Amino acid sequence: MFGELQMKSTPFKIIAASILLLLGFASQAAEQAPNDELTRLLKQRLGTDQVAPPIETGIEGVYMTRIGNKFAYLIDGGRYVFIGDLIDLEQARNLTEVSRRNQVVDELAGFDIDKQIVFPAAGEEKAVLNVFTDTSCGYCQQLHREVGHLQEAGISVHYFPYPRGGSRGPGYHSLKQVWCSADRQTAISIAKGAEAGKLDAADDCNLAEAVDEGYRLGNRIGVSGTPSLFTSDGTRFNGYVPYRELIPQLLSKQ
């Protein structure tokens, strides 16, 4: 009945799980539309600098912001904020999910394609799959063995580095070795055990920083594990999906 809405969490559960915080702003701030001062107050009251400037939602008196990688909504002139998903029950539409997807699209577009490892579609490209990957991740290795099936189906695979645990993670060093290799396609196949060979030392190459950039990018859009899969419209698949299930889902979006 509710289409996309049912594919997510039950809306009432989402709303019930939202966190309502009384910020206690001064009455002057409560009477003003969100602005730079309100952003400052949000940062002060919530104890974090990771607060995006509030923007209008199209719903009178409701403004949207982001706190870290979570979306939040301000009401009563900024006196209250709730963290969670905003649901339009009449249209059966998750408004927060729309914003979340748009953010993903914008963030991925800002990561230079020269810093990605691309396995292009065989023939006409019908879809793109963006994958945050770690060489030490077993399911990442399994997905990589199936990349050929995706290519044959007309799907290009774009790899983004995401070392779980950051610079202390088990795959951090090998990801740098891969991204510093002259042939990154072969290197990532070696690192994931799909091909035999030995990785070169991770010199201080120009692309070494891409591993850290990929980690920061993933954190901004809510990646917490690998593989994390995103379509070109920002739709996310949580974890590994077998290619027989993944291919029809990707092609159905075209």
Key attributes of the depicted protein:
globular; 11 helices; about 35% helix; 5-stranded mixed sheet; 12 strands; disordered N terminus; about 250 residues; alpha+beta; Glutaredoxin
What about the largest sheet? 5 strands, antiparallel
Fraction in helix: 25-40%
Query: Alpha-carbon distance between the termini?
Result: 23 Å
Average pLDDT level: 84
Fraction in beta strands: 15-25%
Specify the structural class.
alpha+beta
Protein architecture, described:
The chain has 254 residues and is an alpha+beta fold. The protein folds into two domains: 4-95, no CATH class; 107-252, Glutaredoxin (3-Layer(aba) Sandwich). 37% of the residues lie in helices and 19% in strands. The chain has eleven helices and twelve strands. The protein has helices at 4-7, 11-17, 27-31, 36-46, 95-109, 138-145, 147-152, 172-179, 184-191, 208-220, 243-252; strands at residues 19-22, 55-56, 63-67, 70-75, 80-83, 87-88, 93-94, 117-119, 127-133, 155-161, 228-231, 236-238. The strands form three sheets. A five-stranded antiparallel sheet has the order 1-5-4-3-2, with no helix packed on it. Strand 11 (228-231) and strand 12 form a beta hairpin. Helix 8 (172-179) packs antiparallel against helix 9 (184-191) and helix 8 crosses helix 10. The longest helix has 15 residues, at 95-109. The protein is globular. Residues 1-34 have low confidence and may be disordered.
